[in-house]
Amino acid sequence: MSTQKISLTRYLVEQQRNDGSIPSQLRLLLEVVARACKGISQSVNKGALGGVLGSAESENVQGEVQKKLDIIANEVLIEANEWGGHLAAMASEEMDSIHLVPNRYPQGEYLLLFDPLDGSSNIDVNVSIGTIFSVLRKPEDNGQGVQESDFLQAGSQQVAAGYCIYGPQTTLVLTVGNGVAMFTLDREQGSFVLTQERIQIPADTKEFAINMSNQRHWAEPVQRYIGECLAGKEGPRGKDFNMRWIASMVADVHRILMRGGVFMYPWDKREPEKAGKLRLMYEANPMSWIVEQAGGAATNGHQRILDLKPAKLHERVAVFLGSKNEVERVTSYHDAA
Ligand code: AHM
Ligand code: MG
């Protein structure tokens, strides 16, 4: 069956009708997020012509210098989402604390979390970047309004997760828990069009993604896994591996969804007190759910990422995700250590 003419709106309406997996507030939420991503895509496309490149000379809560586009994307997502009545609050990699929906607007039953512009180091060099988002249900109201603690739910509680990649094409990838669908932005129509459904990641792969410049800082299980990949045909794996590292998680995960592979951002010795670089709630949880929904796996080296109960909003985590057999292998090396 040709999927050419199915817009995101139609897809969501049909899901709602078929199996009720998308209640109407959630459908509105996803449409609004998609619309915001279209706006961000416009700014990304304009680049230097729109004056959006370069640094904003401010720092986020994690002490990282913000790019202008980090701030623009954050504002676009907040402004698009605060008035629709579908959300109670938002949390972002770029904001210190949660953003409540202002009193002048109705409050909805969902919480939205996002990394507005992932892969920031690639903005100024015209390489793929993206937006990652995760949706949780607001817990029962205890009379105190929405609190940060309401967000601290395991990734297994997500009701929707997705990302939009701003690359040669602008592509939205989405799961609501019944597989992974992909929509490509048709710029002439101004709408996202379904281009792939039921995406599956092959269980085996010969491709890994890791920042090799950190090799000397890794723990032994990661040294062992990568060492065996690098040994190629002559080594214990008996096959040659290829490597890719885009330094945009969105782009690396997208490649893995399209053709398999394993993505790793492990703990390392430079900052032993941190579990890793990537953020559990804005990056690891949504990507892990997407990957699992596509038949892959995601762990922190020891446990399934989606089972981790966050202790704080900006928590970091080590990430191993992608083709199932490889993720299981590198996880087993951690168990054996
Ligand atoms: P960001 O959200 O500030 O852009 O940081 C996250 C990004 C990931 O997209 C990517 O996988 C990683 O940082 C790259 O890190 P490094 O530059 O250490 O290779
Ligand atoms: Mg990021």
From TrEMBL:
The keyword Magnesium applies. Substrate binds at D118, G119, S120, S121, N211, K277. It is found in: Cytoplasm. Pathway: Carbohydrate biosynthesis. Residues 7-197 form the Fructose-1-6-bisphosphatase class I N-terminal domain. It is an enzyme of class 3 (hydrolase). Mg(2+) 2 binds at D115, D118, E283. Keywords: Carbohydrate metabolism, Cytoplasm, Hydrolase, Magnesium, Metal-binding. Its cofactor is Mg(2+). It catalyses: beta-D-fructose 1,6-bisphosphate + H2O = beta-D-fructose 6-phosphate + phosphate. Mg(2+) 1 binds at E93, D115, L117. Gene3D superfamilies: 3.40.190.80, Fructose-1,6-Bisphosphatase, subunit A, domain 1 (3.30.540.10). SUPFAM superfamilies: Carbohydrate phosphatase (SSF56655). The keyword Chaperone does not apply. Residues 201-334 form the Fructose-1-6-bisphosphatase class 1 C-terminal domain. GO terms for molecular function: fructose 1,6-bisphosphate 1-phosphatase activity. Its EC number is 3.1.3.11. It comes from the Bacteria. Binds 2 magnesium ions per subunit. Its main location: cytoplasm. InterPro entries: FBPase_C_dom, FBPase_class-1, FBPase_N, FBPtase. Homotetramer. Belongs to the FBPase class 1 family. This is Fructose-1,6-bisphosphatase class 1. It comes from Variovorax dokdonensis.
